[in-house]
Design goal:
Helix content is about 50%, strand content about 20%. The chain is an alpha+beta fold. About 0% of the residues have low confidence.
């Protein structure tokens, strides 16, 4: 169990911890070289099998052709012998007494026999026909009829001592004969006296030249070192090399098994052979073939070496291709990793140039785009921080010491009452309440009722200044006045409507409509005037999402209000403006309708 866990841990480590380049090379090896190796082994096996089958098939056919040719040659000898043994002239000539036969008759008999022999030689294809007779005729001096006296003491004649009537002889059986009488394959048959069947009269000899037999035996070259030879038992009749005799000695014990006609394996002289053995009909000899195993598989080995060389080249090319591909992929990944490590060290300016359109190239491109986006977000964050600091500074500058301001306004109010100037007293009271609501004890979020009261005091102060030139209609839903809202967002919008809308009209008078209602989950406050209105360019410069307060014209400083609303409630909330030249302006403040602020005691 522990060994299995270690093996599993090792495999997991190999898959997860090994270098990517090594894993890619292993994958390429498994996908390319391994199938190629399996295919090569299969091809080796198939090549051996096919070549062996084809070699044995070709050897089988060639050996059969050789067997037919040799058997045809040797088959002619008994045919001629059978024909001649049926000729009574031959018996009459061999049995006649010279004393009873005239010289003319002997010449006629000789000529008739010679003519018969010549005719049979030309008809059958044998090379020589000879008759050995025991009587001493004048015609025994010819080449066709020979006296047995001339053969006395020869090995072949002695071979008939066992009483056999028919014998086959090879060139080795004529080794004791003169040179011209050695190179023959012969069939000899004893002719007996028809009147006394036990008394031999003559010996009929039919010959085939040894070179013709050699040509028939070696008519087909089966393999480079393959051999076909004629055997008489364990003696080689054709060819006298030591290798042929060694094969004959090894083949002789297998002769009985070889008679089945199949191929057998044997070893001789340190080499392995495939052999086949076929007996020849009538003569008692046999034809054998020996194919060296090395010859049979020489072609397959050559093909295997060529195929192995091709496989090695393909494997090398595949490895080189795998190495180059892995280098290309790993190099780009390393570049991407270096850039990521640089970012990790704090260098946010690090970039990587995308290379390629594959997944790695897309990853590099995504990383570059991500870092560019991070830079943009950091710049935006920095800008927002600077703007927040600026707004905080403005708010800090706007915070006046409440006690000093209220004491000063109270002194002005007492002086106005003492001197009987009610307008100044009214103005001072409105201004004091206005600033008290503006300060709101330092709170940033106040009830909507306080924001509306702050706006009313501002309109009242403006009408005190400008002799009631602004008429205001208030349309406020009662149940929303306790909803919270960030302070001082409504008064600047009303200020813009009065100063830059109504007071820019020729008569400098006009009407405002201020409405507040709930729309779904939102709270909408609308400021609508009948002033001069704005053209699209001015409206876009002041109320669009990318408008800058530095670029606003004519006092439309609403950018800060919009930014405060975005920071407090999100990008979906803020100011929305509808305006046209000569038709007035309508500004909507949209904020979420949150839970009411609890009343302070």
């Amino acid at each position: 169990m522990r060994c299995k866990s270690k093996l599993r841990a090792w495999g997991r480590s190999l898959l997860l911890d090994a270098r990517l380049r090594g894993k890619l090379l292993v994958i390429f090896f498994l996908l390319l070289v391994l199938p190629l190796g399996v295919f090569t082994l299969y091809a080796f096996h198939r090549i051996n099998t096919v070549i062996e089958e084809q070699t044995f098939s070709a050897a089988e056919k060639a050996f059969e052709d050789t067997h037919i040719a040799v058997e045809d040659l040797f088959g002619r000898l008994p045919q001629v012998a059978d024909i001649l043994t049926m000729d009574p002239t031959l018996y009459a000539l061999a049995a006649s007494d010279p004393a009873d036969t005239s010289y003319i008759q002997r010449l006629q008999d000789r000529d008739r026999i010679s003519t018969t022999f010549t005719y049979l030689r030309s008809l059958s294809g044998v090379d020589r026909i000879r008759l050995y007779v025991s009587n001493d005729y004048l015609y025994t001096n010819s080449a066709d009829i020979v006296s047995l006296t001339a053969a006395q003491g020869s090995n072949w004649l002695a071979a008939f001592g066992d009483g056999a009537s028919v014998r086959w002889f090879s060139p080795s059986d004529f080794a004791d004969q003169p040179p011209g009488e050695q190179d023959w394959y012969s069939l000899m048959r004893v002719l007996y006296d028809p009147s006394h069947v036990q008394e031999p009269l003559a010996v009929l000899r039919i010959d085939i030249a040894a070179d013709r037999v050699e040509a028939a035996v070696n008519r087909s070259t089966i393999t480079r070192n393959g051999m076909v030879f004629l055997l008489n038992g364990d003696r080689v009749l054709t060819g006298s090399s030591d290798q042929a005799q060694a094969l004959a000695d090894a083949l002789s014990p297998q002769a009985d098994t070889a008679l089945s006609g199949g191929w057998n394996e044997l070893s001789a002289g340190g080499a392995r052979y495939h052999t086949r053995y076929i007996p020849l009909e009538g003569c008692g000899w046999a034809l054998a073939v020996a194919l060296p195993r090395d010859d049979i598989f020489r072609t397959s080995r050559e093909l295997q070496l060529e195929l192995l060389a091709v496989v090695i080249l393909l494997a090398g090319a595949a490895y080189l291709l795998a190495y180059l591909l892995s280098q290309s992929m790993v190099r780009r990944l390393l570049r991407l990793n270096d850039s990521m490590q640089a970012v990790e060290r704090g260098d946010v300016s690090a970039r990587v140039e995308p290379v390629g359109k594959d997944e790695i190239g897309q990853l590099m491109r995504s990383f570059s785009n991500m870092m560019t986006r991070i830079d943009t977000l950091m710049d935006e964050k920095l800008e927002q921080g600077q703007q927040i600091k600026a707004l905080e500074l403005k708010a800090l500058q706007a915070q006046i010491n409440p006690h000093f301001l209220y004491n000063s306004l109270d002194l002005i109010n007492c002086t106005a009452i003492a001197r009987n100037v009610p307008e100044i007293s009214r103005m001072v009271n409105a201004l004091a309440q206005f600033y008290r609501l503006s300060l709101s004890r330092g709170r940033e979020v106040i009830p909507l009722a306080d924001e509306l009261r702050h706006a009313r005091l501002y309109v009242e102060i403006q009408n005190l200044r400008f002799e009631d030139r602004v008429q205001v209609d208030w349309d406020i839903e009662p149940d929303i006045t306790r909803c919270p809202i960030i302070k001082i967002v409504l008064q600047p919008i009303i200020e813009n409507a009065i100063i830059h809308g109504i007071f820019e009209k020729p008569d400098k008078t006009g009407r405002l409509r201020i409405a507040a209602c709930r729309q779904g989950r939102d709270l909408c406050i609308t400021v609508e005037d009948d002033g001069v209105g704005m053209d699209p360019a001015t409206r876009e410069a002041n109320f669009s999402a990318d408008a800058s307060s530095a670029n606003t014209k004519g006092g439309y400083g609403v950018r800060n209000i919009n930014e405060r609303l975005h920071l407090a409630y999100g990008p979906g909330y803020g100011l929305f403006c509808e305006s046209a030249p000569g038709k007035g302006t309508r500004v909507t403040i949209r904020v979420p309708a949150e839970a009411p602020v609890p009343e302070e005691k």
